[in-house]
Amino acid sequence: MPSRARVLSSKTLYNGRLLQVKLDRIIEPGNIQAEREVVAHRGSVVILPFLPNGRVLLVRQFRYPAGQPLWELVAGSMEAGESVVRAAHRELLEETGYRATSMKAIFSFYPSPGFLTERMHLVEARGLTLSKAHPENDERIETREFSISQVKKLLLAKKLKDGKTLVGLLWRLFAGDAKG
Q1: How far apart, in Å, are the Cα atoms of 2 and each of 6, 66, 113, 124, 177?
Q2: pLDDT by residue, tens only, the chain of 180 residues
Q3: pTM for the whole thing?
Q4: What architecture does CATH give domain 44-178?
């Protein structure tokens, strides 16, 4: 069985600054003919920033689609041709004012593969030193340090609602437990 779909036609319905919406007619593996609405996105980074004291840094900002402010890991869209590590350095500095001496790509994942092409890259940042944040004009960002036990409490109290943050923090908790 082939592992890729064959595209019969593709129509761009919307072309924006961050994403593109397409309507594709395809033949999927197994000879299934379908029409798929696809949101194309060039990808993003999700940064898991660890301060020298072992605490993790989260940001809080208002998210219009969610209708509320959310605590999140630092994240942002990658620019065309930008590497994962370079995007992680840029986003960390922009949103928090911190610079990292070490950035380690952990793994990549698809947040919603049923209709979205976006691939998110989880990156661990260490060796943080404070500099000056450079948020975009439409961003109002609060930062706060959390201990791992505080993160666990937030998770158990269902206070964290952002998917990429849940993926990153749960990976950290699992990986930390797996190490001993």
Answers
A1: 10, 38, 19, 35, 39
A2: 567 899 999 999 999 999 999 999 999 998 999 999 999 999 999 999 999 999 999 999 999 999 999 999 999 999 999 999 999 999 999 999 999 999 999 999 999 999 999 999 999 999 999 988 776 777 688 999 999 999 999 999 999 999 999 999 999 999 865 554
A3: 0.91
A4: Alpha-Beta Complex (3.90)
User: Please, where in the chain does CATH 3.90.79.10 lie?
Assistant: 44-178
Closest CA to 92 of 35, 50, 147, 149: 50
Q: Across-strand partners of 121?
A: 45, 108
Which residues, at least 6 apart from 82, have a Cβ–Cβ distance to it below 8 Å?
90
